[in-house]
Amino acid sequence: MPKLPDPTKNPDYVIAEAAEEFMQPIKKIADDLGLTEEELLPHGHYVAKVDYKKVLERLKDRPDGKYIDVTAITPTPLGEGKSTSTMGLVEGMGKLGLKVTAAIRQPSGGPTMNIKGSAAGGGLAQCVPLTPFSLGLTGDINAIMNAHNLAMVALNTRLQHERNYNDEQLERLSGMKRLNIDPTNIEMGWIIDFCCQGLRNIVMGLGGRRDGFLMQSRFGIAVSSEVMAILAVAKDLKDMRERMGKIVVAYDRAGKPITTEDLEVAGAMTAWMNEALNPNLLQTIEGQPVFVHAGPFANIAIGQSSILADRCALKLSDYHVTESGFGADIGFEKFWNLKCRYSGLKPHCAVVVATIRALKCHGGAPIPVPGKPMPKEYQGENVEWVEKGCANLLHHIATVKSAGINPVVCVNSFYTDTPNEIAAVKRLCEAAGARVAVSRHWEKGGEGAIEFAEAVKDACEEENQFKLLYELETPLRQRLDLIAKQVYGADGVDYSPEAEAKAKKIEADPELSKLGTCMVKTHLSLSDNPNLKGVPKNWRLYIRDILTYGGAGFVVPVAGTISLMPGSGSNPAFRRIDVDTDSGKVKGIF
C-alpha cells in the first residue's frame, strides 16, 4: 500500500483523492469477491451495481458468513465514527487474511452539504471513490425521490379532478372512481434530499382551478421516505412491488386509508425503483469490497443499509460487517427488532463504538458545536469525565447483551487520547462483561485495527442467544413501554391526545397491529431531549404523533420535537465544496 497523507494534518478528501490514485478497478474487486461477469453491472471503472437476484440464486446453497453489526454510544453532534470504524474493522480483518465485506448506507445530500459530512469514514479508514459516493452514486436516492413525489403528484391531481368533475364526468374522462379523499387528513408529504427548514410546512396549489388543489403540505428529507425504508427491507422485486402498493398516502372522509394502489400509481413508482434494487459495490482505501445500499437515517427512519446487500455479502464472504445508524438505542434497536426480524438473519457479534471525546461530553464536558472549534476542555486529560461518561457506554453494552449478542467495545482512538483515559474505559467495560479493543484505524488504517479485528473474530466464535425484544402480537403501547424502559431507560411513556387515539386505532386493527415499530427520536440523547447527556434519570418518553408505513411494514411513533426535515446550519459544508476547473476534481467533501 503506497504511503498516504498524514490524517492528523490533512482533511479526508485529500486522503481519499490520494488513495484513489491506487484504487483497484471494480472488476478486480468483483473477481476477488467471486462475482461472475453477468452479476457485475459496472458504472464506470470504480463503481458497480450487483445483480442480487443472480448472486442469491447461484449461491443459495452456500452457507452464510459471520454477521457483525456496528453501532455506537450516544454520539456528540460531531459523530463518533461508526462508518470509520466499520471501514477500519474490514481493513483490519483484511490484514488478518480474512475474506471480509462491509455494508454501509448511501449518504444523503442533506448532511453532505450541511455539517455532518458524507459518512464515507475518515482518515485512513474510508470508502472510495469519495466523490461519486457522496454525490448521488448510481442514482438510487434520485429514484426514491421520483417514486415518492410521483405518489404526491397522483394525490394532488386526484384531489383536483375530484373537485372539478362529478362522478359521471370522472368515469367518462378517465374511468376513475371517486375516492373522497379528505384533504385535511394527508399522511404523506413531498421529499427533497437536502436539509431545508423552510419546507417543513408549505401551502401548495395557489392560483386558479387549473393550478392544482389548494392544500397544506410539507417536505421531509429523502432518507425519511417510506420508499427508502422499502428499499432497505425489500427481499426482491415482487416484494417491493407489493410493499409499494401498501403505502398509505391519505385517508378518505370516513377515515379509510387511501393507498398508492388506490391512486393507481404504485406500478409506476416501482418502475422508478427497478434498477435501484441492485446494491452498489465500492471498496475501502485498502481494497476490501464495500456494499453501499439504501440510506435511511436512524433517528427519523430505520437507519440500516439494505437486507439485500447483507444477504449477498454473507454469501460471498466469510465475515460481513454491517453498520447501524447512530447509537444503540435507535440504530441497533432497529437492527435488532426490525432488520433481523424481516431478514431472518442472526448476528454473531455487535460492536459498540466509543470515543474518548464523546465519553467526556457525557461526563460533563461542554457539548461540541459542529462548525466551531472544539472546546479547550477536550485538549487535556480528564479521567474523571471519561469515567462518568462511561455510564452511557455501559447502558448501550447492556442493550446489546439484552438482545443475546456478544458485544465488543471499540475505542475509536484519536491521537490525542491518553493511556490513562483508555485504561479507564477498558477497566469499566471489561467489568461489565464486554471485550474491549483499542483501534487506531483512523490514523493507521488496517495496521491500526488488528487488535480490533482479532477481538471481533474471537467474539464471532462464541455461541449467543439472539432474541427479539417483542413479538408482533404485543400491543403497540406495550411495545413502546418496553422500548422506552429497557432500551432508553425511561420511567414510562406519555402520549399526546392525537397519538393516543392513533395508538388505540392501530391496536384495534388486525393488520396494523402486526406491523413492526420504528421509533423517531433524537440521536443526541437516550431521552427525547437532545440536551440530556449520560444516562438521564426520572423522565418519561413523550410520543406526539404516530405515522403508518404500511408498505415498509411498521408504524412510526414520533417522540419529542424531532422533525423529518432537518435544518441547514449557519456554516454549512457547501460553502467549502468546489471543483478544480483544470482537473475536474471535487474539493472539500469530508
TrEMBL record:
Pfam families reported for this sequence: FTHFS
GO molecular function, one term: ATP binding
Keyword check for Ligase: yes
Catalyzed reactions: (6S)-5,6,7,8-tetrahydrofolate + formate + ATP = (6R)-10-formyltetrahydrofolate + ADP + phosphate
Binding residues for ATP: 76-83
Domain of life: Bacteria
GO biological process: tetrahydrofolate interconversion
Enzyme Commission code(s) on record: 6.3.4.3
Pathway linked to the protein: One-carbon metabolism; tetrahydrofolate interconversion
GTP-binding keyword on record: no
InterPro entries xref list: Formate_THF_ligase (IPR000559), Formate_THF_ligase_CS (IPR020628), P-loop_NTPase (IPR027417)
UniProt keyword list: ATP-binding, Ligase, Nucleotide-binding, One-carbon metabolism
SUPFAM superfamilies: P-loop containing nucleoside triphosphate hydrolases (SSF52540)
HAMAP family on file: FTHFS (MF_01543)
Assigned protein family: Belongs to the formate--tetrahydrofolate ligase family.
Name of the protein in question: Formate--tetrahydrofolate ligase
